[in-house]
Amino acid sequence: MTAPKKLHVKTYGCQMNVYDSERMAEALAPSGYEVTDRPEDADLILLNTCHIREKAAEKVYSDLGRLRPLRDAKPDLKIGVAGCVAQAEGAEIVARQPLVDLVVGPQTYHRLPDMVRAVEGGSTAIDTDMPEEDKFDHLPKLRTPAARPSAFLTVQEGCDKFCAFCVVPYTRGAEVSRPVDRLLGEARALVARGVREITLLGQNVNGYHGEGPGGVWSLGRLIREMAGIDGLDRIRFTTSHPNDMTDDLIAAHAEVPELMPYLHLPVQSGSDRILKAMNRKHTAESYLAIVDRLRAARPDLALSGDFIVGFPGETEADFEATLDLVRRVRYAAAYTFRYSARPGTPAAEKDAPEQAVAVERLHRLQALIAQQQAEAQAAMVGRETTVLFEKAGREPGQLVGKSEHLMAVHADAPDALLGRIAGVRITESKANSLAAVLV
Ligand code: SAH
Ligand code: SF4
Ligand code: F3S
Fold first, then answer.
1. How many C-beta atoms lie closer than 10 Å to residue 338's C-beta?
2. Which of 84, 157, 161, 335 gets mutated to test ligand 2 (max ligand atoms within 8 A of its CB)?
3. Is 193 exposed, middle or buried (0-12, 13-18, 19+ CB in 10 A)?
4. Which tens digit of pLDDT belongs to each residue from 155-186?
5. Paired strand residues for 108
6. In this predicted structure, what is the pLDDT of residue 137?
7. Which of ligand 1's atoms lies nearest the C-alpha of 306?
8. Its pTM surpasses 0.85
9. How far is CA 165 from CA 76, 142, 211, 230, 276, in A?
10. Among all ligands shown, which has an atom nearest to the Cα of 57?
11. What average pLDDT score do residues 218-240 get?
12. Ligand 1 atom nearest to CA at 167
């Protein structure tokens, strides 16, 4: 018997790539590939890439360059690029970095076994189709035992929104929702393998509209049905667009105890002028109205967001409007990005504010958000909540996990609580985590 071949997957970008990387590994298991954490042991290295900002995309090339010594030491080592850079750049990747044997986009990785066979035979394989068929129908159904009690489940892919700055509609293609029965089946299989918490994923997850019994189901309906799965204690979903935040989904936050009180709802800017230029199709006020309705449904809802600073045409007054919106929302966390012009997007043709101006704004926004995050954490001190313990903490005898509001919590706890949900009382707020005691 030949020794199993080793696969190393490095993941960049969003949670959907994390999910895809796991599915790629499963797709290649029947071809004899076992996953390794160590690139130097691998026979096949896949970089599952992100194209969202220039820095993320360029990092792929510097990382590829660093694989050169591994290839020199092991001439049979095969190297592949998957994900959104693969989709955006296709064969150009091989032209720029001849080390690469394989290029596969996010919608065709179910074809990896055939592609890898071709590559093992000495060919180069490139596939950036956006096929009619659903890759999920062609991927192995069985999932390996869950390494973590919290799992991702992609329910929707692609985006039809075409924000002026964003590559996702081009790299992931049009919005597609997976059918309800597959998702419920996958969720049950995850729970049977020890998963207690599922985060439903989609680039535009609240736009979910999947075929289900009796017609088309919304995300709210899917969540209500999933909440009935025995052993599934926590449900989350990400990422949502304000315009698809329906009454039914807002009501689910009030009515479904398994739906956790945390929502990532990107707004990008607080200036209506910039929102219009971004093609966001909502205003600052309409976003704030949604936040009010969500908080009416679930008063303790923790909100997070995404912001882009230095978008083309952004003035100091536009940026002040963003700070103002942040002050009104009071975020528990937020991700802030300096605008990056992406090839092929409409905004890339416009002039952006000078780098120094954008960097200075970014720092001011980050300071405000850090202050809000500290306040949100401090408000938890003395309160009781639950934690899903996921791994050992830094100190002996400690476990760490996530609270209902997705805050990192550490507590002295027996190993028997790993993978389980336990009640805690928060005792202290630290830089990026909370300390707690079991109750
Ligand atoms: N589908 C999600 C996430 C898209 S990508 C959504 O619509 O919210 C995640 C975040 O990256 C975006 O919310 C945006 O804040 C940021 N982003 C996208 N394109 C960018 C660009 N060209 N420059 C800087 N940040 C960008
Ligand atoms: Fe990109 Fe906008 Fe679609 Fe989000 S909604 S993925 S930011 S185009
Ligand atoms: Fe990046 Fe593609 Fe996700 S561009 S953010 S990996 S959808």
1. 18
2. 161
3. middle
4. 999 999 999 999 999 999 999 999 999 999 99
5. none
6. 85
7. 15
8. yes
9. 40, 38, 31, 42, 12
10. 3
11. 98
12. 19
